Amino acid sequence: MNDIKLATSRGHERTTIRVGEVTFGKDFVVIAGPCSVESEEQTLAVAHAVKAAGAHLLRGGVFKPRTSPYGFQGLGLKGLKILVKAREETGLPVVSEVMDTRDVSWMSEYVDVFQIGARNVQNFSLLKEVGRARKPVLLKRGMYSTFAEWLNCAEYILNEGNPDVILCERGIRTFETYTRNTLDLSAVPAIKELTHLPVIVDPAHGTGRTSLIPSMSLAAVASGADGLTVEVHNNPAEALSDGDQALTPAQFSEFMRKVGLLRAFMEGLN
Length: 270
Ligand code: PEP
Ligand code: MN
Hints:
Blueprint: E1 17-19, E2 22-24, E3 29-33, H1 40-53, E4 57-59, H2 77-90, E5 94-97, H3 104-107, E6 113-116, H4 124-131, E7 137-140, H5 147-159, E8 165-169, H6 187-194, E9 199-201, H7 203-207, H8 213-222, E10 227-231, H9 249-269
Parallel strand pairs: 3-4, 3-10, 4-5, 5-6, 6-7, 7-8, 8-9
Antiparallel strand pairs: 1-2
Helix pairs in contact: 1-2, 1-9, 4-5, 8-9
Bound molecules: phosphoenolpyruvate (PEP) and manganese (II) ion (MN).
């Protein structure tokens, strides 16, 4: 990893990134919201619910990287306007995925954090483009990325002058099919040895199963993660994407209670 100059720990202070009222790399940050922005009613209902339960940022996809071209592709600009309304009503900053270099500049008027998804993590043109943007970037791990490859992706962004990169472990593809991906929690302490950037965990895409999210979230907290991102839907059975891995608002509230208790215990260990 000798050629990774900016993203590796050598000689760098730990990066902290202020977004709204929280600081990645210092506070334990929870991002929650629907996989996709589907309608104003759905997004506002989820936004108010996650805010009430203590989430710090709202997530919601408006450009969806779907396996099938016939899957719901997202609401685009209409969805971003819904996210802005949700931010106005709740005060939660918003995170949304950008998939195309042509969308980076105009989307930065709407989002507080850009997400780069697992399928686009080695789209080097896109990485350079968000590297020129003045917004933090949540950089997912690719489903086949080694740590060195993932850190090189961060390097592309840092090298363009954007220092605000948050890494997100979201599972890698293995031979197992019961889970959607294999959540690699060893990535958290390993990557924290290798880089100064904050690292959060996405147990939703990491497992693909609602039932596994609470336990893997607690395991992520214990692994030393700087935060979590989860999907919440007011009616998972009817979700247009990723309903099988969505928490209901009631499940999310219980999840936040347990995460809070474990965080408090972990602080006592330090
Ligand atoms: C998402 O966050 O909805 C998403 C598509 O994530 P990933 O890129 O990790 O699959
Ligand atoms: Mn999703």
